[in-house]
Amino acid sequence: AQSVTQPDIHITVSEGASLELRCNYSYGATPYLFWYVQSPGQGLQLLLKYFSGDTLVQGIKGFEAEFKRSQSSFNLRKPSVHWSDAAEYFCAVGAFNAGNMLTFGGGTRLMVKP
Amino acid sequence: NAGVTQTPKFQVLKTGQSMTLQCAQDMNHEYMSWYRQDPGMGLRLIHYSVGAGITDQGEVPNGYNVSRSTTEDFPLRLLSAAPSQTSVYFCASRSPGTSSGNTIYFGEGSWLTVV
User: Fold this and answer.
1) Euclidean distance between CA atoms A57 and A19, whole angstroms
2) Fewer beta carbons under 10 A from the terminal one: N or C of chain A?
């Protein structure tokens, strides 16, 4: 069975600083990997996804993520954080051979200092 | 183009009451799922369906029932609500297959409080 670990429950960064959110997964085959963002009281928004090909994936809002098979990681990065990026971020791995679509990590809550 | 529609958005129940969270999609997706979201635990799969008439249990199915009589609808039933079922519930759908174009669509969530 697949699993996802997000080691950092909370992260605080200053506005303008760079950001890296960690995600490690466990999956027996080639994973399909996702990052979602959720603002308070809101639903989930897809930031980016990795299916195959180039291991550096560009997403919306200036985010990118790099798939590293050797490290079983899919870390999310942004070079300069904006106050509006404060939210909760979820990494997920997809098992597309079944109806149970996604397994999520526990989430990382990002706070941005002015 | 409504996508995935969940109702109600907010609900307060008393312990022991029953209710149904509705989920409908207009994209003719075969796969539909229900998740619950709890602090620090991400989203966990409750039940899922790979087509009309076919359902299966996910990670946390206890206390919940589902049925899939049509492709469009996938209701989640709480037969006797418990405070442990206080959570945010998300419905999702997608087409089968492994194409990168098979986007997963989420509803906007249903906030349920059981008192």
Assistant:
1) 16
2) C
